[in-house]
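Tip: read the tokens left to right.
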């Protein structure tokens, strides 16, 4: 899939764990893990907004498009 999820990179840069991000965003660890591993079929804008707020980043820092 040409959509790359860089959530793990941003989490490492901000030194935040999956558990902590899950609490701040209000999404289960399992759902965040699915997103982090690129297995999600989609993400809601309100979830993306909460992730960006918690990580102090832009959506483009998390989601990237690469042609195959």
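Filled-in amino acids:
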């Amino acid at each position: 899939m040409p959509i790359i999820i860089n959530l793990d990179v941003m989490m490492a840069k901000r030194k935040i764990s999956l558990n902590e991000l899950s609490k701040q965003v209000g999404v289960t660890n399992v759902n965040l893990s699915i997103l982090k591993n690129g297995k999600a079929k989609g993400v809601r804008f309100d979830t993306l907004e909460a992730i960006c707020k918690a990580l102090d980043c832009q959506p483009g820092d998390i989601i990237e498009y690469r042609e195959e």
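The first strand starts at residue 3 and ends at 5. The chain has one domain: 3-65.
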